[in-house]
Write a structure and sequence with these properties.
Blueprint lengths: L2 H11 L24 H36 L17 H4 L5 H11 L12 H13 L2 H27 L2 H12 L13 H17 L2 H14 L7 H11 L15 H18 L4 H8 L8 H13 L7 H22 L12 H14 L18 H4 L4 H10 L3 H23 L6
Length: 431
């Protein structure tokens, strides 16, 4: 074997997600070299995680500083010009108490008193209940949970991308996710940051071949949001890929994936015990949130209708549908680029593309029906759901090496983020 072939073989063995054996480590003479001691491996791993923390911390602090400034300035949209009115200081955090945050706080205090509340899965309000024992308020507890999980989410995302690509791309991925127009939900008392943290931890463990840990994190992700169940697909694919798609190489640890399904089963059993129905959350989506499975054409037709039925381009109906559709179209384009063209994922990383495609398609299957009073807004909440499609931001980070793409995305997305957060803080319809 010539030197080039030897180098390629060594590279193939040491790709992220593949666990080399001791015999895979050879010196220049071709003899087996001593493996790293366990202590050295732990030290090296700690160094990588600490470096990830140092690299994402400036992003996290800068974004949260911007959120704080916007929160302070949002009062200018409430107080009339030249008014001597003074708002209480708790306005700064109470202005984040909107929409789903109210439901999660209620669940933390009272539990599932109504069947339709089961649409909100239990882990986040359960954590709120116990953290509230320390901070004294379930809503404040929700803010603490989301913001702590948000930092952890960026660290894990950075490590995941760094392992499979490089540190530069990892940094841009964390940055681009943080300035996405709906990224302020990572700081709100919503499930977005907690769910993505758990999903990324599950994904990271899959890539490292830690199947039981991947199942455990997938279990908690599913208890946070129903879409956590979709982690089962990348789990199965990545397990088979790392075992060369040979049935004889499958071991008992493949059952780690059953933990992901077990989470949904556990919640269903609770629902049956409490409300005599295994699926009250699906019924709630239909009756309380006006969501039904529909074809993609239904969504396109109603988005166009929402714009066409408006009083003009600069109207609420037109602008909201355009803003929602633009964010979703951006994610769709990035998913397409993940499978075709020069920015597509390599074969060993197809698990990212598979997860992104399935998650995106599933998220689009339940648009909101036309409201006779509000009108057609079929994409309600969908831009927030796009935060879960993290592989799209890895593709965007690849494009971000071009300065024009980088600056255009950061500036435009940052402006839309500022506008949507200002609307959210002042009680407007942003969910």
């Amino acid at each position: 074997m010539d030197s080039l072939s030897t180098e390629n073989a060594a590279t193939t063995r040491t790709q992220p997600g593949d666990t080399p054996s001791v015999s895979d480590t050879v010196d220049s003479t071709g003899q087996s070299a001593p493996a790293e001691s366990r202590q050295d491996q732990v030290k090296a791993a700690r160094t990588k995680w600490f470096n990830a923390f140092k690299n994402v911390l400036p992003i996290y602090i800068s974004i949260h500083l911007a959120f704080f400034v916007i929160t302070c300035l949002a009062v200018l949209f409430v107080i009339p010009d030249f008014s001597w009115k003074v708002l209480p200081i708790n306005t700064l955090w109470q202005s984040w108490y909107r929409w789903d945050s109210v439901h999660y706080s209620y669940l933390a205090m009272h539990g599932y008193t109504d069947w339709w509340r089961t649409v909100f899965f239990p882990l986040f309000p359960l954590l709120e209940r116990y953290v509230a024992l320390v901070v004294g308020d379930p809503f404040i507890a929700g803010l603490v949970i989301s913001n702590v999980a948000g930092l952890g989410m960026l660290i894990v995302l950075y490590r995941l991308v760094e392992e499979d690509f490089d540190s530069e791309r990892a940094y841009r991925t964390a940055l681009y996710l943080s300035v996405f127009p709906t990224a302020f939900f990572f700081a709100a008392a919503y499930t977005e940051s907690l769910f993505l943290l758990l999903a990324l931890l599950s994904f990271y463990c899959m890539r490292q071949g830690n199947w039981w840990l991947a199942g455990v994190f997938g279990f908690f992700a599913t208890l946070t949001r129903s879409t956590g169940l979709l982690l089962l697909l990348p789990f199965c694919y990545e397990y088979l890929r790392q075992h060369q798609f040979k049935l004889k190489t499958i071991h008992f640890d493949v059952f780690g994936g059953t933990l992901i399904v077990a989470a949904l089963g556990l919640f269903m059993l609770y629902c049956y015990h409490r409300f005599h129905s295994f699926f009250p959350f699906t019924r709630a989506e239909h009756f309380m949130w006006s969501r039904d499975p529909q074809s993609p054409w239904f969504i396109i037709k109603n988005v166009i209708a929402g714009i066409a039925q408006s009083n003009g381009l600069l109207s609420f109906h037109a602008m909201r549908n355009i803003i929602d559709a633009s964010q979703i179209l951006l994610i769709l384009v990035l998913i397409i680029l993940a499978v075709v063209g020069p920015w597509r994922f390599p074969r060993r990383l197809w698990v990212y593309a598979i997860y992104a495609i399935v998650l995106f398609v599933v998220l689009q299957t339940s648009p909101v029906r036309v409201n006779p009073i509000r009108g057609p807004f079929p994409l309600q909440s969908f831009p927030r759901y796009m935060l879960e499609v993290f592989p799209a931001f890895i593709v965007l980070a690849g494009l971000g090496k071009y300065r024009t793409v980088h600056l255009s995305y950061v500036m435009v997305s940052g402006v839309v983020l500022f506008v949507l957060l200002s609307l959210f803080l002042t009680g407007h319809w942003v969910v």
